[in-house]
Amino acid sequence: MVFKLILPQCEQTSTCVNHPPEWEKPLRIQISGWNKDLDNLFEDGLKMPKPKSSMDRATEFIEPGLRLVQMAFRLLYSRNPDPATPSDMVPRHQYDIWRGATPDRVLLPEPMQRDYTRLEGYTITFDHLLGPGDEDDPETLMLNIIDPNDPVRADHMTISKSPYTSGSEPVLLLVPRCCQVRKGTTDRRRINREIREANLPEEVRMKRLMEESRAYEEKLLRKSKAQASSDVV
Known about the structure:
It is a single chain. This protein has helices at residues 35-38, 63-77, 162-165, 187-197, 202-232, and strands spanning 4-6, 27-34, 90-99, 105-106, 118-128, 140-146, 171-176. The chain has 233 residues and is α/β, with parallel strands linked by helices. It folds into two domains: 4-199, no CATH class; 201-233. The chain has a seven-stranded mixed β-sheet with strand order 1-7-6-2-5-3-4. 25% of the residues are buried.
């Protein structure tokens, strides 16, 4: 069954300026979702690649990812990308989301799947109206695709779920960060760093990812030890 992708109405007291964004505003936009949800978006039955056929490089874009960007663009700007304006929609970066035993969740490319063996999601980033002087640190918008009927994922939203769970047509929500529990204070730094590093030599990129992975594991270990100490007290 095909699910309809919807941009939910913002329920913030002061409506977020990027929900939806002004069409003339330069912006870097990242979309992330679980493959089990993305597999339900395409009417022709197109599915996300399985591990053996995943993307080889961060900038060789897969067809489902490009279609996802097109769908999100139409929801955000109420129109299709303008082919006469090359900077209107420019895909920049993509990666798979792998889940492993430790740490619970890290974002790693395919070459490291020996440690994180279950492919669960996908993330793609595109630029809107960014010029050469805007690319280093532009404003960003983070969007997550969430199934309102998923009891775990739906709790990540701050918007009411009932308008999207009572209809006869199944839907998925394209939820901006302003309507999520997580506030994304590091989104801009993280997303722009990913773009800067996307075209680095593979060995450099892998070294940085390994360093980040180790740092993340150490952070989880410190948190676990601190929790254990507090439980003893």
